[in-house]
Amino acid sequence: MYTQALNTTEAEDRSLEDAGRAARFQARIDAEERIEPNDWMPAAYRKTLTRQISQHAHSEIVGMLPEGNWITRAPTLRRKAALLAKVQDECGHGLYLYAAAETLGSSREELVDQMLSGKAKYSSIFNYPTLSWADIGAIGWLVDGAAIMNQIPLCRCSYGPYARAMIRVCKEESFHQRQGYEIMLTLCRGSAEQKAMAQDALNRWWWPCLMMFGPPDGDSQHSDTSTKWKIKRFSNDELRQKFVDATVPQAHYLGLTLPDPDLKKNEATGHWDYGTIDWDEFKQVLAGNGPCNRDRLAARRKAHEEGAWVREAAAAYAEKRNKKLAA
Ligand code: BYC
Fold it and tell me: What does the alpha-carbon distance between residue 208 and residue 246 come to, in Å, rounded to a whole number?
């Protein structure tokens, strides 16, 4: 009896203490203070950040595959060097994003396993194929363009390690976007065949790029809490609209047509109104049924297996070195 009464009081104390901590945490967020790894944070904040940062890391790593496909077939040495550097940059982004996610308490092995087992998501966009050289231009211009639109606000995310990682990522993505646009410009100023190739790439990548920003606001599960915690600064639809408004004039400058008959400038709002996104296609891609989902996961699993000896060698070296330091 006595023990039970004592326990109840302890539980009450704990929940009062937690409520106090949660209120202080929210006050820090509201005051635009950065949350650092050793600070107290609600379990749900840790969980949603681990989810988002690790998905982001997986996207960077899987994102190397569609472009990596063209490294050996780049049309010139200059294009090859730039593409090689871009793909290496994506790898670097993945690595510092995994490092940022690790500061929240999950191990890299655990996170990578979640991706390889198909449990964790990565961006839908990387489940589409790169069929021509123009796709490399379209990815740089549109996919990196969309990524920048989404990631610039993440530089002000409440979680310090993620926000700081985003600063460098955004600088590199801006360079990627420029090189992609320059590929498109070269193709559009080239032969009729080259211009048609650029138009075909735009036709295939446009709608999947709009899907990158996530489900419409009414269907977004995490937006409310992520906005309250200043992980998200803009909603999915707001960022999508910003992307459309920035990209339509760029397409016009290239002399290309956007594959949307409903696209038109809304003189009242100043925005470009766009047609209906095929959310069934998005759901299918998320469910693993996009054109390349199976290939992408198979390629990552193969690379992981083939890299096992590197991880073992690094671990053996670290153990030996630690023993030496301890002696
Ligand atoms: N693909 O409640 P919601 C790049 C999921 S760029 C797959 O709105 P949230 C790169 C979402 O995870 C791409 N899944 O979620 C660029 C959630 O499922 P779970 C990576 C998606 O988190 C160039 C569910 O749908 N960028 O790496 O509030 C070259 C409901 O959505 C997608 C980032 O990851 C999608 N497109 O908002 C190479 C940026 N959209 O988790 C590489 C960081 C939504 O409950 N992430 N889902 O199972 C974010 O900003 C946010 O997570 C999102 C989604 C805006 C993407």
Answer: 17
Among the listed residues 210, 233, 213, the one whose alpha carbon sits nearest the alpha carbon of residue 162: 233
Ligand 1 centroid vs 326 CA: distance in angstroms?
A: 44
Q: Is the CB of 68 under 6 A from ligand 1?
A: no
What is the pLDDT confidence band of residue 6, given thresholds at 50, 70 and 90? very low
Provide the mean pLDDT of the chain. 95
Mapped onto helix, strand or coil, the DSSP state of residue 273 is: strand
The phi, psi pair for 264, rounded to 5°, reads -155, 150
Closest Cα to atom 26, ligand 1: which residue? 56
102 lines ligand 1 (CB under 6 A): no
Q: What percent of the chain is predicted at pLDDT more than 90?
A: 94
Query: Nearest-CA neighbor of 258 among 207, 315, 184, 323?
Result: 207
Measured torsion, CA atoms of residues 142, 143, 144, 150, in degrees rounded to the nearest 10? 100
pLDDT of 157 > 90? The answer is yes
Q: Are 303 and 295 in contact (CB under 8 A)?
A: no
- Does ligand 1 have an atom closer than 6 angstroms to the CB of 233? no
Burial class (CB in 10 A: 0-12, 13-18, 19+), 160: middle
Distance, CA of 150 to CA of 153 (rounded, Å): 6
Per-residue confidence (pLDDT) for residue 15, from 0 to 100? 78
pLDDT tens-digit series, residues 270-306: 999 999 999 999 999 999 999 999 999 999 999 999 9
- Residue with the two structure tokens 């006050």: 27
CA angle 151, 156, 159 (to 5 degrees): 100
Give pTM, 2 decimals: 0.93
User: Considering only CA atoms, which residue is closest to atom 15 of ligand 1?
Assistant: 222
In order, the DSSP letters of 18-83 are HHHHHHHHHHHHHTTPPB-TTS---HHHHHHHHHHHHHHHHHHHHTHHHHHTTGGG-SSHHHHHHH
Say how many C-beta atoms besides its own lie within 10 A of residue 185's C-beta: 17
Q: How far is the CA of 123 from the centre of ligand 1 (A)?
A: 6
